[in-house]
Design brief:
330 residues; alpha+beta; Arc Repressor Mutant, subunit A; SH3 type barrels; 3 domains; four-stranded antiparallel β-sheet; 39% helix; extended
Length: 330
């Protein structure tokens, strides 16, 4: 932990130096970060050793101020400051955890370029940060990355240029592959997955497809005119990745889980009311879809649907079915 605190503090020192137009005095840095001037001097020395171009100079009043060389990235027409470039490098593990196979190759190439912009000592310093800034990567998907990347490239082209596409898709509900003629509208990322929203003329409706279950995509010569306007937040009405009309739901939570329920924003429409004994009632307007039912069932005996009665009956039926599956076990 002390090493983590040291690296974080040195990152703050670096950022403070870059954002200060006229430099920063050591005692001002010490006051801002709540440490001694001796600690700040050690941090400055460590940053210089890591390759960051720091220097000191006296101002008109004779006070020594520290600066970060602003031309360290001269010749690099990115528009990034050094701190912004370092922050982007640090976000690598976060981006890789959500990028998925279609973008992994391009992301790897992008970060390879960023690495070339930073000196080896800078990278060594920054590489200590992922131990502090961690991300749990999404589980690896079955199938080849190259095939999925190729399908994604064609979908993006179809979306940008309104190209009709023929898509082969593995449907979980029917347990078979099916061919669809589609008008690709948008690619969306949600809950660790990439999804395609496409208008399907056969159904006269916009459907959602998991990109990981797309087998192949081919673009047709003809173009299309979008028939539907999609909301900015395409899954905003759902707790999952569904779309559809909203309806009210009210759920009662037991006292022992109530603090956790209060601490989270489960949906923008939520309202929480306190009840006797430390219990809480959570009200929302969301789609009554599988995502909602799965979320409620995940609370087990700690949650109870108060309204509507139809949803309460569905949850009760699900719990009874689950109970029967365990009834015959010793």
């Amino acid at each position: 932990m002390p090493r983590n605190q040291e690296v974080i503090r040195q990152w703050k020192v670096l950022h403070a130096l870059e954002t200060a137009r006229h430099g920063v005095a050591i005692d001002a840095l010490a006051d801002e970060l709540g440490v001694t001037t001796r600690t700040i001097r050690r941090d400055l020395a460590a940053l210089q050793e890591a390759g960051f171009p720091l220097y000191d100079e006296k101002d008109a009043e004779g006070r020594v101020r520290w600066r970060l060389e602003g031309q360290v990235l001269k010749g690099l027409e990115t528009g990034f400051t050094l701190a912004e470039l370092c922050a982007l490098y640090l976000s690598r593990n976060l981006l890789e955890s959500v990028s998925g196979a279609p973008f992994r190759r391009d992301l790897t190439m992008a970060f390879a370029r960023i690495e070339k912009m930073l000196s080896p000592r800078m990278r060594q310093f920054l590489d200590a940060m992922p131990g502090i800034l961690a991300a749990k990567p999404a589980p690896a998907k079955p199938g080849g990355d190259d095939a999925q990347a190729e399908a994604m490239a064609r979908l993006l082209e179809g979306t940008l240029h309104h190209r009709v596409a023929m898509m082969r898709y593995h449907s979980v509900s029917s347990a078979r592959e099916k061919d669809y003629l589609i008008h690709p509208y948008r690619i969306a990322f949600a809950q660790g997955e990439l999804y395609l929203l496409a208008f399907v003329p056969e159904y006269d409706d916009v459907r959602t497809f998991a990109v990981s279950r797309i087998v192949s995509v081919s673009l047709e010569k003809q173009t299309f005119t979008p028939h539907r306007d999609l909301a900015d937040d395409v899954f905003g009405n759902s707790l999952g990745v569904y779309s559809g009309p909203t309806a009210p739901v009210e759920i009662e939570f037991e006292a022992r889980i109530a603090p956790y329920v209060r601490a989270r924003v489960w949906h923008p429409s939520q309202e929480i009311k306190e009840a006797e004994g430390g219990r809480v009632y959570l009200s929302m307007r969301v789609c009554h879809d599988w995502a909602l039912r799965s979320w409620i069932l995940g609370w087990g005996p700690l949650a109870r649907v108060v309204a509507p009665a139809s949803l309460a009956n569905e949850i009760q039926s699900e719990l009874q079915s689950a109970s029967r599956r365990y009834a015959g076990r010793s």
